[in-house]
Design brief:
11 helices; hpI Integrase, Chain A; six-stranded antiparallel sheet; alpha+beta
Length: 369
């Protein structure tokens, strides 16, 4: 049996479980409700742009297409608006060594702020190599210098060529898809909002304050991790160490996430020393999907698992042996739980159902890389 059930990226706010477990109206604040391309589709669209950029035998056409490719890649990996990219001087405002794109002050939309956006080392190196081509560098001396309507048409054409609705391939939808992609990969909401230039983000969680430098560091960690994909763990949380309770053999580490949740982990004292952990240090916690236990309903479960997070079922992928549940918690983070299909039938969960995701402090692995 194979099933797949999905819901929109934005979820309605549920009733408060026991008048407290859920922060009202904060399941997700952005992006807006509606469909967008997923990561696999974004990768397919990117490949289509790359192939299209190489197809013409005419040098002038190749240069023009390469320019459109760069515009697409910048929107794809920075989440910037089209007008922000078109106003960008690519030869002066991309720092390849520091892996930063300076989007400046050209965007007059009050909902976005002047900012620098971090990109991966791999993407920065690719851009540097492209700009080191003398012919392409001369072509970009007048910056991008291209009509926005022309850019949109080329975006639509590539999307339609893959069988996607053209509207999903527009620059605004690529920006939105990037935001959803980052959240689904568990980048903290304040970091996503900062990256996209939203001026309404709240950098203070219920437990700990995250400075702009903290958010910048979290973003760097996430972008580097996303590019390398060195971990097999499906669930990750970025946060700051709130407290350390050291025992004779092990230490309890309390992590406060940017979304306001608390994650507890118990590690050996030797690991504490080896990782040089201390209060207020930024760190990443990971939990494998099979170690997450689901409890149906709004009432917080009475169980021994120290970590209990409330959310709603967003997607169910059922197989013969195992069933995968994707649960969106209050700050937009997606948690993955893997249970036996027999157990899933007993749970009787459906898309949109309220659920608690719980896991033991001994299941949490801490990573300082």
């Amino acid at each position: 049996m194979n099933q797949k059930q999905t819901v929109e990226s934005s979820l309605p706010s549920p009733k408060s479980p026991a008048q407290g477990g859920m922060d009202q109206g904060r399941l997700i604040s952005m992006p807006e409700t509606g469909p967008c391309l997923d990561s696999i589709q974004l990768d397919s669209l990117e490949q289509a742009f790359r192939e299209w950029a190489k197809q013409s035998s005419r040098t002038d056409v190749q240069l023009s297409r390469r320019r459109i490719l760069v515009i697409f890649l910048l929107i794809r990996y920075t989440g910037a608006k089209l007008n922000e990219i078109l106003a960008l001087d690519p030869l002066k405002r991309i720092d390849f060594n520091r892996q930063l794109v300076d989007l400046g002050n050209e965007d007059t939309d009050a909902r976005t702020e002047s900012r620098t956006v971090r990109i991966s080392a791999t993407f920065a190196a690719e851009l540097e190599q492209m700009f080191n081509d003398p012919s392409f560098r001369r072509f970009l001396e007048k910056q991008f210098n291209v009509d926005p309507g022309f850019v949109r048409r080329k975006f639509y054409e590539r999307a339609q060529g893959l069988g996607f609705p053209k509207t999903l391939g527009g620059p605004e939808m690529i920006r939105k898809a990037r935001a959803v992609e980052l959240m689904q990969r568990n980048m903290p909401m304040p970091a996503v909002q900062t990256m996209l230039g939203h001026s309404t983000m709240n950098l203070t969680s219920a437990y700990v304050s995250f400075s702009k430098d903290d958010i910048a560091q979290v973003t760097k960690l996430f972008i580097d991790r996303e590019a390398s994909r060195k971990t097999s763990a499906r669930n990750s949380f970025f946060g700051k160490i709130k407290a350390l309770q050291k025992g004779d053999i092990q230490t309890r580490v309390t992590l406060a996430t940017a979304g306001g949740d608390t994650i507890e982990s118990v590690i050996t004292n030797s690991s504490l020393e080896r990782l040089s952990l201390k209060e207020s240090r930024l760190i990443m916690a990971e939990v494998k999907a099979p170690l997450v236990i689901l409890y149906r309903g709004e009432k917080e479960p009475e169980c021994t698992a120290e970590n209990r997070l409330f959310g709603m079922v967003e997607q169910i992928n059922a197989g013969r042996i195992n069933t995968e549940y994707l649960v969106r918690i209050k700050d937009g983070t997606i948690l993955c739980a893997l249970v036996s299909t027999h157990g899933a039938q007993w749970l009787g969960l459906g898309v949109g159902d309220p659920v608690w995701a719980a896991f033991s402090c001994f299941s949490v692995v801490l990573n300082v890389d």
